[in-house]
Design brief:
Layout: H1 6-37, E1 46-50, E2 55-59, H2 85-96, H3 105-129, H4 143-173, H5 178-192, H6 201-225, H7 233-250, H8 252-267, H9 274-290, H10 294-328
Antiparallel strand pairs: 1-2
Helix pairs in contact: 1-2, 1-3, 1-10, 3-4, 4-6, 4-8, 6-7, 6-8, 7-10, 8-9
Length: 329
């Protein structure tokens, strides 16, 4: 049984979420700016980006206007051409200030931190509870128990945060005031019921729960094989990246559907059920369509998982050592 209190688990997951966002946001800001540079002649609608913790819907400017009038951070014109990731880092930092690389961080922290805290703390509590009912090696539950705990924890965290995600997505996709948003939500509840606040819950569950099950099973299995009951930072970085890569690859078709669904929510329209969307993508593009974007997904998921789990394990180890010193004293 863990010698950490829930408050320590919550503080550990909070620390991990903040550090992950701080590390990953600049990479996604650069990626989005490079994409925006290529959209000059294209139709300007909504697009999605993710910094490793949260998906964000962004609505491009519909007409040419000054930066002060309507261009948000991802649509700011850069006087010179951006030639690749490193070049973009340097030029954006020089011309707009280094703080521009963390644009979009506040909305991530507002929703991602509570979501991550609920998720990781629930996971730890369920995993510890499994010791009472499942036979393992006497001290740790079997790896599949970690996968089960991860899946159940994700269901709970998604359910709690889903209405706030819906609100955030609508506000990011369309410039509306809080007053207008309240009226919109009241109208939505009146017409379709309060359950409509959980629109997008099913595709989110279909993507995130299998990911969590595969991720935590893989991570716990690697811990068991390497005899890492209290993982070192190097092991957590490696195992987190590998486990995230496995889970990210196997659940990519579900991630494609989730992305389509978020764009739909932002545009206030719907194209049918998850099964219908999967069938349409497969009919039009085949297997390749269902696994589109594999490399970019792994480029985001693997480092994000590595940073999150290694920071989480390190912080837990810090609290565990402090508790032991307090006990000795």
């Amino acid at each position: 049984m863990s010698d950490l209190q829930p408050i320590h688990q919550m503080m550990s997951s909070c620390t991990g979420a903040v550090i992950t966002a701080l590390f990953m946001t600049p990479f996604d800001v650069v990626k989005v700016r490079l994409q925006a540079q290529q959209r000059a002649e294209l139709s300007r609608t909504c697009f999605l980006y993710c910094n490793g913790l949260m998906d964000h819907i962004c609505k491009c400017a519909e007409s040419v206007c000054t930066q002060r009038e309507c261009d948000p951070w991802y649509n700011r014109p850069v006087p010179v051409q951006l030639n690749g990731t490193v070049d973009a880092f340097l030029k954006i930092s020089r011309q707009e200030g280094i703080q521009s690389l963390w644009s979009g961080l506040p909305p991530t922290l507002v929703v991602a931190i509570p979501n991550t805290v609920i998720y990781f703390t629930t996971y730890e509590q369920l995993r510890e509870a499994s010791l009472k009912y499942l036979s393992g090696d006497g001290q740790d539950p079997p790896p599949w128990a970690g996968g089960l705990a991860g899946g159940l924890a994700r269901i709970w965290s998604v359910t709690v945060v889903s209405p706030f995600e819906l609100v955030r997505t609508k506000m990011q996709a369309k410039s509306i005031s809080y007053k207008e948003l309240v009226k919109l939500l009241q109208l939505q509840i009146t017409n379709t019921g309060i359950i409509s606040l959980w629109r997008g819950w099913v595709p989110t569950i279909l993507r995130d729960v299998p990911f969590s099950v595969i991720y935590w099973y893989s991570y716990e299995k690697m811990k068991k094989i390497a005899n890492q009951r209290q993982p070192t930072t190097n092991f957590s970085l490696f195992a987190g990246a590998v486990s995230g890569g496995i889970a990210g690859t196997l659940t990519l078709p579900l991630d494609v559907i989730k992305t389509h669904r978020q764009i739909e929510i932002a545009n206030f329209r719907s194209s049918g059920s998850t099964r219908h969307m999967l069938k349409n993508i497969y009919t039009q593009q085949g297997i390749k369509g269902l696994f589109s974007g594999l490399v970019p997904r792994l480029a985001k998921v693997m480092p994000a998982c590595a940073i999150m789990i290694s920071t989480y394990e390190y912080t837990k180890r810090f609290f565990r050592n402090r508790n032991q010193l307090d006990t000795i004293e």
